[in-house]
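Appendix B, record 7
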Amino acid sequence: MSAAFAFPPPPPCPEAETLRAEIRTFLADAIATRTPIQRAESWTGHDFAFSRAMGARGWIGMTWPKRYGGQERSQLERYVVVEEMLAAGAPVGAHWIADRQSGPAILRYGTEAQKRSILPRIAAGECYFCIGMSEPDTGSDLASARTRAVRDGESYVVNGTKVWTSHAQFSHYMILFCRTGAAGESGADRHGGVSQFVVDLKNTQGISIRPILALTGEHHFNEVVFQDVRLPADALLGKEGDGWAQVTGELAFERSGPERFLSSFTLLVELVRALGAAPTDAARIAVGRLSAHILVLRRMSRSVAGMLQAGENPALAAALVKDLGALVEQEIPDIARQLIDAEPDIDSTRDFVAVLGYTMMHAPSFSLRGGTREILRGIVARGLGLR
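Structure tokens (predicted):
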């Protein structure tokens, strides 16, 4: 039985710090007109032209082989790009999922045809993905997935529903996680008989995409319904039946990045500005504590980037980063309200008040996306030999 798992120091990468200065120069001009409340959108905000501009600079798919549109740069260099974009509040949401996890999944498991057709377009900032994992009544328990793909000659017929599918409304593709075999239904092997598919959302009949609106009225999430959807056999990603191993590897990318503790960062910036040059002792203690938490999470997250660079699968470490990060992200608006007497209002002309209102209404989703707290803690407990 294991009592702990380690977060080793990431390897030194001087190229990453050189790149950091280049990114800051780019952002100083590229997002100069974005207001604080727009910057508070973090990685859910999207701007197609901005994504194309990032692609032109080689900042999407940057770790991938050059023959697929990548730059063959390190995971730590990619980490710096992501960190700087989020800290500045850049609108990276359009290409986010494709760059973070869908592209790496295709690179690892896809056919040569899938790689050559899709990866260069992702790297150019012109092809966007969504994730077909969660389902009604199952939440983050992927082993309970009921969406099914049945082989029928040279195609698969898919029926089922996915929920909380971010940005499906403009995505070109979905990586769909679903059942293709009978395993798992009896309870003997819940992780068996599942597969992944690359679904062309723009050119496939029978798919309905319905909005799930946030408290702000924004349209980020969706319900995606498959009704007798016919997918070609070459839409299969990897091997039939290997979906569980594939998707757990993909989740290490989804759960470990700086987006897991920087979603409320714009609010922290506006809080410090609102406190002014002479904050109270209580304010200094609170901001110092939050800063310490973020620095620790950053260290853990960079460690995971180093593990990915080394070709490891840090699924347990990533789950812990995601769980602890969501706690801090959700704590920031509560602490901000205690320190400054102001009623949250997204329509306010005061930047702090508007950003506070925006962040408070989105904070409940921070512990939902990427896996609920209960599921993540179960993963960590199992990794520690406690269950």
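Remarks on this record: Residues 14-128 form a domain with the Butyryl-Coa Dehydrogenase, subunit A; domain 1 fold (CATH 1.10.540.10). The mean pLDDT is 91.
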